[in-house]
Amino acid sequence: MKNVLTLYSSARPRGNTFAMVKVLTDLIPLQALYLDDLDIRDYDYDFGNQGDDFANVIDSMLKADVIVFACPEYWYALTPAFKRLFDRFTDLTELECLKVKGKALRKKQFYLFTTSASKKPSDAFVSVVSHTLNYLGWVFAGLVHVYCENKLDEGEAKLVLSDFVEQVSRG
């Protein structure tokens, strides 16, 4: 079994994205971090933000084999917490002390899990993640989307998550 880290964010801490992560947690063991509870500061050209939780998140990512970004689609975009995290990935390309960690993440598999009131996520939303990962040389291994116009249907979520769980369980 691969070691899975799920990073999730949502305007509603107990909303559909949380419910999706909860279903996943019931199916396989994983570590989950709620980005909105962490102190990840905006990107700073002078790197005056190094005392926040960003380095700890990267260290957690390095301990995992598979990293899941779980995020609802808001107006074709990531949540503000994910936007900050993605902006801060720049630190992994510019700070000498972090470049080796950024390169080590090239050995990991990254997935995007999303919930939305659309039958499928927009290409614009997915491309932000896929293009960022590609730029960094990280592996975008797949997308899992659960449609939920209102409340997430846990039965449907289990079905949608089953292929991912099978892949991760194979090791």
Taken in chain order, the helices and strands follow as EHEHEHHHEHEH
Q: What is the CATH superfamily label?
A: Flavodoxin domain
Query: Count the strands?
Result: 5
Helix content: 40-55%
Count of domain modules: 1
Pfam families: FMN_red
Keywords: Flavoprotein, FMN, Oxidoreductase
EC number: 1.-.-.-
Enzyme class: oxidoreductase
Task: Tell me about this structure.
The protein has a single domain, classed as Rossmann fold (3-Layer(aba) Sandwich). It is built from seven helices and five strands. Strands 2-1-3-4-5 form a five-stranded parallel beta sheet, with helices on both faces. β1, α1 and β2 form a beta-alpha-beta unit. α1 packs across α7. The longest helix is centred in the C-terminal third of the chain and has 17 residues.
Features:
Rossmann fold; alpha/beta; globular; FMN; single chain; 44% helix; 5-stranded parallel β-sheet; 171 residues; oxidoreductase activity; FMN_Rdtase-like_dom
